[in-house]
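Intended use. Records such as the 3-isopropylmalate dehydrogenase entry shown here are meant for training and evaluating sequence-to-structure methods. They are not intended to support clinical decisions.
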Amino acid sequence: MSTTKKVLMLPGDGIGPEVMRQVLRVMDWMAKKRNVNFEITEGLIGGASIDAHNNPLTDETLADAMAADAVLLGAVGGPKWDNLPFEIKPERGLLKIRKEMGLFANLRPALVFDALVGASTLKEDVVKGLDIMILRELTGGIYFGQPRGIEERDGVRFGFNTLVYSEPEVERIARVAFDMAMKRNKRLCSVDKANVLESTVLWREVVERVATDFPEVEVSHMYVDNASMQLVRNPKQFDVMVTTNMFGDILSDCAAMLTGSLGMLPSASLGAADKNGARKALYEPVHGSAPDIAGQDIANPLATILSFAMMLRYSFDMGDDATMIETAVQNVLKGGLRTADIMQPGMAKVSTTVMGESLINELDKIA
Ligand code: NAD
């Protein structure tokens, strides 16, 4: 039996529309072969929306996003819009949609595909088989805390920010983290600096309290300085890591680089759960609009396809289908196909379109 899943597609700018076309193919395949009923709406965001409406995110598109079960975004931005005033730059569209949808949980998986293990700067045995998830609090903490500013006091200039978390803010991200751990290997590491920062003493207390609702999950706590060392020393010790906005900003980029390839990295941002447990959610590749290669059919579509797989897992509870897509990606790479960004000696360089086609062939084989 199929139930309708409302998806808003926002291809955006640069390579966004090219990589999104390959996702549409995968969705079409799923509709036909897996009996999944997607109701797809397309909208404009970023530069594309500025060109059409003089606004990087219109109220209509925002309303579509709020009404959708999930949003898939390509990328925004490019040199054409670089000189616009700050308020109507393409990136404002992205910031606004994240804010309006209340996306407080940012999920960044770091997954090393066997075929690409050589792309990491770390030794093969350290990263082979790596599969961790970094969960970053996205709307609170020191990036938003008040007071903030630069001011002069008695002739000396001070720059200051405030690191503040309320108990409900910590609790909601902790709950997402535990849910995530339950869908993975049931291990959660909460990263803080509770030896120095009171805000993260509270963070740790709240994580401990929420943990009692998830007895199956093994919880640990780590100071952020140690966590950064451990991520590079032995990243495979982790399953899910949850942390504050600023620590997560840094650790997720560090974890991303364990994999070594920007064109392969998906992400998700989740909002609060409604009374049925459904969350607002936006999925997007980590990379930008890559204006240097846009329109040439050479971009790597896999980060966006893997973002779609995350949508299946986290918005639609279709973990098996998500795994199937991830396996198809593994197999295509194992077969020696590479887009230019991940090209290695002895492999076959293929276009965006051929990568998409090959993935569909692989899905046919697996299904
Ligand atoms: P970028 O991620 O767009 O590109 C960095 C480099 O990686 C480029 O050489 C590009 O060709 C390459 N690259 C990126 N994605 C690729 C893919 N899928 N396949 C093959 N190669 C890929 O970052 P940038 O150059 O710093 O930014 C370009 C534009 O994108 C800017 O306008 C920036 O503001 C915007 N941007 C948007 C987002 C977003 O929409 N979330 C994120 C980052 C940057």
